[in-house]
Amino acid sequence: MPAHLLALTSDAHDPARLAGFWGDVLGRVVVDDLRGALLPGSDTQVGLRFVPSGAEKVGTNRVHLHLTSTSPADQQDTVAAALELGARHLDVGQLPEEGHVVLADPEGNEFCVIEPGNSFLAGCGFLGELACEGTRQVGLFWAEALGWPLVWDEDQETAVQSPHGGTKVAWGGPPVAPRHRRNRQRFDLALTDGDPAAEIDRLVAMGATRLGGTGDGAVELADPDGNEFCLRYG
């Protein structure tokens, strides 16, 4: 059985504060673990983890969250609640006629509150999408790595989704911004059954690169676009 996507892990100057913000926005309970603060996910909603880091945020992230809305009032309520909790409006070049609202969380991480009626995110739940920078190749890699169906594959854009439904993980295709440093966000995979060495070999055969151990019982790899991710087991 392939490893499953446990969480999107993000570097944070104050993991507890950032986890508290997102816990309040998403209505999830924060769980402390050895690596930071975790908002557990489910079969249909991806988890979020925040870990301590002194690295400064430079430019836009390669992953940002899309929250869904059931009505215009619901969208406004989500935006108002996020602002009250410490978010701020953000201009990333969006056009006035676009219906989504772009915000930044208390540490500047971009996220969007999507307008109601978005057909692509219909039925995906409140955390509708992890919107990622990436090539078509990396979307195909993650479909195979996770054993998730490829639910979008057009014009070099791809998306995968758990067989149970829920949060989509999507890659926007070219042009992909160049990487100049370690990503502040990483996928955290968990292998609960099977041989870790065999799983690592499988991922490498598919195009991943093994980077080494993390010091906390996990192995770090990079996907075909060079994005770091962790495989945890045991």
Mean pLDDT: 94
CATH topology: 2,3-Dihydroxybiphenyl 1,2-Dioxygenase, domain 1
Cα gyration radius (Å): 17 Å
Helix-strand sequence: EHEEEEHEEEEHEEEEHEEE
Largest sheet strand order: 2-3-4-1-13-16-15-14
Distance between the termini: 14 Å
What is the CATH architecture annotation?
A: Roll
**Total number of helices:** 4
Kindly name the structural category.
alpha+beta
What does this structure look like?
The chain is of the alpha+beta class. The protein has a single domain, classed as 2,3-Dihydroxybiphenyl 1,2-Dioxygenase, domain 1 (Roll), CATH 3.10.180.10. Helices cover 21% and strands 34% of the residues. It has 4 helices and 16 strands. The chain has helices spanning 15-26, 72-85, 136-146, 196-206; strands spanning 4-12, 31-33, 36-39, 47-52, 63-67, 88-89, 101-104, 110-113, 127-132, 150-154, 157-161, 168-171, 185-191, 209-213, 218-222, 228-233. The strands form 2 sheets. An 8-stranded mixed sheet has the order 2-3-4-1-13-16-15-14. The chain has an 8-stranded mixed sheet with strand order 6-7-8-5-9-12-11-10, covered by helices on one side. The radius of gyration is 17 Å and the shape is globular.
